């Protein structure tokens, strides 16, 4: 069975890219992989960032499922 794909315009700042993907979240993720690094925070990271005033941002399961296209 063929997977339906579209071409999406992904805009990041002044940059615009054309990405063929199955949904917008996959297109955004493809671009983000080249610009965003995600790691599990260790205790030192948490301590240092909290001291700098960085707040923990909460996500919801519904938001996460929508983001990945489920």
Question: Can you tell me about this structure?
Answer:
- The protein has 70 residues and is an alpha+beta fold.
- The chain has one domain (6-67).
- Helix content is 37%, strand content 20%.
- It has three helices and two strands.
- It has a two-stranded antiparallel sheet with strand order 1-2.
- Strand 1 (6-12) and strand 2 form a beta hairpin.
What number is the mean pLDDT? 89
* Class based on secondary structure composition and strand pairing: alpha+beta
Give the oligomeric state.
single chain
The overall number of domains is: 1
Measured by DSSP, the beta-strand proportion falls in: 15-25%
The level of helicity is 25-40%
> How many beta-strand segments?
2
Widest sheet: strand ordering: 1-2
End-to-end Cα distance: 19 Å
Give the biggest beta sheet. 2 strands, antiparallel
Gyration radius, in Å = 16 Å
SSE pattern: EEHHH
Q: Count of DSSP helices?
A: 3
* Overall geometric form: elongated
The parts where pLDDT drops under 50 for at least 5 residues are none
Distinctive features:
elongated, two-stranded antiparallel ribbon, 37% helix, 70 residues
